[in-house]
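Hallway conversation turned thread

IA: we were arguing at lunch whether anyone had actually written out Type VI secretion system tip protein VgrG end to end. Turns out nobody had. So, for the record, here is the sequence (1074 residues) and right after it the structure tokens. Reply here if something looks off.
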Amino acid sequence: MDDPSWSSYRPSDLLGAFDVTLSQDQRLLKFHLAGQSLIPHRLVGEEAISRPFCYTLDVISQRGDIELKSLIAQPALIEIRQADGGYRPLSGLVDTAALLGEDGGVYYYQLVLVPWLSLLSLGRDSRIFQDKTVIEVIEAVFQGHEIAKGRYRFDLRRDYPARSYCVQYRESDFHFVNRLMEQEGLFFYFSHGEGDHCLVVTDSVDTCPAVTPQAIRFHRQAATEAEDALTQWGGHRQQQPTRVSLATFNYKQPRHPSDIAQDTIRDQGHLPDTEVYDYPGEYYYPDHRRGERLAVNRLEALESRAKRFHGAGGARQLQVGGHFTLTQHGQHERGDDSEREFLVLGLTLHAENALPVSAHLSTLPGSLQEQLDQARRAHGLDLSDKGSSLHRDDYQRAGTGHYLVDIETQRLCLPYRSSLDHPRPVMGGPQTATVVGPEGEEIHTDRLNRVKVQFHWDRLGHHDAGSSCWLRVSEPNASAGWGAVFVPRIGQEVIVDFLEGDPDRPLITGRVYNGDERPEWHSNGLLSGFKSKTYRGGKYNELVFDDATDQERVRLNSEHAKSQLNLGYLIHQHGNTRGDFRGTGFELRTDAYGAVRANQGLLVSSWGQLGANGEQLDMRPAWRELQSAWQLADSLSDSAVDHDAEALASRTDLHKASDDAQGRHGSADSATAFDGSSATTASKGGRGEAARLKEPWLQLASPAGIAISTRQSTHLAQGKSLSVTASEDINLAAGKRLVASIADRLSLFVQRAGIKLFAAQGKVEVQAQSDEMALTAEKKLSITSTEDAVHIAAAEEVLLTCGGGYIRLKGGDIEIHAPGTIDVKGSQHLFGGPTSLSYPLDNLPETEPSNLDLEHLYGNGRPVPGARYRAFLADGSVRQGVLDAAGKATLSGLPLGGVQVEYFQDPREIDKRPQAWPSKVPIKPTYATTSGDTQAAVSGSAGGLGSTSQPAPSLLQSPGWAGGTSGRMPNTSGVGLSSPGWPEGPPLPTIPGDIPSDLAGRVEQQARAQLEKIAQEKLQEQLPGLGNTELSSPGWKGGVPTRPTFGDLKDTPHAQDTDLTSPGWPGGSPKKRS
């Protein structure tokens, strides 16, 4: 309230008082603003830890023409006089300037001072920080503002890990740095100097300075006090949670436990257990240690708020971030020093200079007068008390003024952390971005198929591999070892979403086309599917679905060798264009190689099965044809045997083919379909039986016919027999030659109409190079030369006989004997002296020993170097050795017959395990593999034999040995096969005791089969002495053919150690057999 004695005070007198008495010397408040003469009158200040300060100041001036805009952002200095006569500075920047009014020639202005940090809230930015610590990020933000340079420092006690990805998105720098500091447990305060203020960022109260003087008394404030004091003091306790628990999920370690819990250690009385559980997002912390720190930060923020102390008084040295010692307070005198030390967390100050003009100036709207009056009343000060030093008479006397402060503190011994008052921005929805990578690359990804992107809002990115962190890509399906993989390529536009709206957690959820990346199939909407692009090329792979009405089509295409599978309605397609009709059904084609493999059998049939009904291997039409063929072959074979000709031994295989085509498999207990809602129920479907092949046959069947044509050669190779059965005719036509090379015998039997063998030109030769030749006819036997002679010559004897009479030519003598008349008629009878005729006889060829090349390969075609091998020859001898570096070896001087080759372990495996030559013959082989788990194999002139870790040989009949097999398997003395040429009859096999029973059974079975064969052919009666007769092969003179004949050890996988027989046996026939 104004004093009435001042009501008639003239403006000229007021202005005169301003000129005479308004000096800043010895005043409570001083104010400095460059280029301006402004006297501070009233001051209200707000300070808090981790908050910008705000000082509002009423100033007076004689000038009313000061441009307000000239004051904005100017540095200003407030000085507060201390009890010792010195001054404490408060510096800031002018944020707001206002002209409150004029009274008596005096102009009142109001200025608001803030720190430079507050100016960071004026802007807004979006940018990305990668692999930087929070300190480096904050410093990078500050260094982007010229006003911040040199005005901040860090005073830290802890280390901080680098953040792989940290995004500031559409938020001010002020909000961004505050958010980061709150997350990391950092806080800040301001220190003031004579010319400027400095932002101090710290993580420990131990770094906070003490105020000067540090000791502050609790005492009633009076005008006679030489020291400032606190006149009000009290504690405030609030219940807080007792536990903080955090959880996160780290996709790099999905099974790693991530739960963190921290309990309070502060004594807060008898409080119920309360917990703050939070899931702040995925990979919020990478490890347990980091999680504990973040949880402790939150818990310490809660513990700090649990107990606070508030005070008020006139202590002018107090400032936020400083600590002091409270003295002369009864509640704190009994404890140790930590009970009396307090950290100032926030304060509000009210100050007024005692100026003469204040006593008669009216209150202007917006001035700080009202706030100061409220502060006085809150401090219990009565302005109506004439004895009070705050009465306006003091202003008239130009006194010092007054200063009031309210503070909030906590004990210095407790940690301080700011609460999370600055939340992260929440992304409003998905965004699009462009996939980026190193220059010149088309694909840039890692082991998790993550990619990097350039966000459209990122003006600092360089569209390279440093534009973002690795972003995971959502796929249609994803799991360990299975799922879908479509890695976004550089340049593609992708859809990026954010987990829980967190800008630090981007995730690619899709891809979109744009003006540069346009779809291959467009406009008509009929074509859909997938199409890839060759890395650094223009080719592609694609799966196209064509949904044109009544022209449904699917194409699976690889541009390499134009390899395609076309299904349905086939047309030409070029990009987006549907072209001409090509056919219907399916087409599997390639410009390169092709292979069709089915481990359990393969059916290729043109018998119809309309509507996709029926069983997969429905071979009933084919079975009927095979059954008919077997019946024909069986009847003709029986007829041949009845006429002493060779039986069709392969008819049993033909019957087996028919029988194997009637196999069934599946579960016969149920054939019901289930349409359940669960996998367990649905899995009960798919039962019943279906056709199958009992053995892995390749079945070709057609109701119209099968045609095989080539401009070159057609080859049929069988391990056992080749059967050709026709209900009517078998026709062979050769433009040049028809050549047959047979290892055992040639047998032709004709039921009716005889045999015709004609040579229109050229000589007809028939030779038995190592045995007899018999020509027999039930009726007449004619030998006729229509234009030349008939020569009959023999090295030993020529015998012509009929009806008991005979003519014998032997040893140069001629015998003519007859039981009846010898009739010799002629125009002349010449019985001259002895003479002879030397007739040239053909020298029949003999075969010579030959060589056999071995080559041992893995399944991937690489050689097996240094592998040991052992070869069992036809004469019973054994050769062994080591393959060279190319996996090859050559066996020289081989005798007539088959060769059985064993390969041992990969030598690299032998290096790891000692391996000796096998002393016994194991039955079940184990297969060596390469380091890449590729099954070993062998190929070459010795045939495609497999490789075994342990040998498992088998003994098979060699078709060229007319006298039976003379060789024996190792360690199997007495094991052999019968010889049809042995005069004493075929011996039964002797099975030694050290031979495994299953091997002995197979040997015996083979021997008995041989005996049956001998009995059927009646060789002992018809061809006596065959066992001691040479057998040579007339056709094979040039060495061993490369294609082998395999044995039939059906319980041995891949016929791994089967006898390798050479159909020509160039090694020569054995001269003598025992």
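OS: looked through it. Residues 527-592 form one domain.
IA: good, adding that to the notes. The chain has a mean pLDDT of 80.
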